[in-house]
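Each lists sequence, tokenised fold; shown next:
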Amino acid sequence: MKKSAPPLSLSLRKLREKLPNYLKLMRMEKPQGSLLLFFPCVFGYTLAGDFNLKISVLFLICSILMRGTGCIINDIADRDFDKHVKRTKDRPITSGKVSVREAIILAISISISILSLLIALQFLPFESLIIAISSIILVIIYPFCKRFTYFPQAILGLTFNIGALVGWRVIEPLNTTAILLYIGLIFWTLGYDTIYALSDAQDDKTIGIKSTALYFKEKTPLFVSSCYTVFSLILFIIGYLENLSLYYHIFMLLASSHMLMQILKVSKGNYNAIFRSNILTGMIIWLGFIVK
């Protein structure tokens, strides 16, 4: 005899009980990751065209959902490692508050929601949609790279910044400037995520997780400085190639100065605060693209 489905009220009560853990699994309490995923999208769109509030809001919603999916996939892959790291041992999957099955269902549901939203609103051309969908492959690969290479931050850079190509293609076909922007943003991610990795460096070394912070060790500030320098140079090259205004270059100079301040603070610790300050860097750069 088949079991009857649970009453709707019971299902809703269970959902309410689980919802805080689902939101924590998606890192909703830490919006900086979503914003760092959002910036490349609006960078590409705004540089190729102009500021558009509606499109920016749509990119923000998709970035929040996509980042949530990425966090779920990451936590599923890292569940056996996270229990040994102070910062991650209380994550929902590791602590047993959310099962792997629940997490997989949630990730699939969010991915379907994103795709449905993009198709329903029809604001992405076919090429942009294909680029966006293909990024899922990188999202899945990234968590496993930490086991095999000291440069998982490079894979994260490829993944996190593909939105620049998506945003650009909404306005016009990809060109040299779009590719330069994407490359520059990869170096930005290499820099700020290396700073972020410093906070877990000792735990990562103990459990066998690799990162650029562990590879460069005491030379990490020099590596971050090199990444930020390349990113800054590319921003100025873009300004030259696109014949952008003096205002653009002033904002890029401000962004470069802010990145320099980050580098000077690295030796003092407080890595998470330095990492989070890249939200301000992103805002400055976006303003530069808006007034270009």
Remarks:
- The first helix runs from residue 8 to 25.
- Residues 104 and 291 are 42 Å apart (CA to CA).
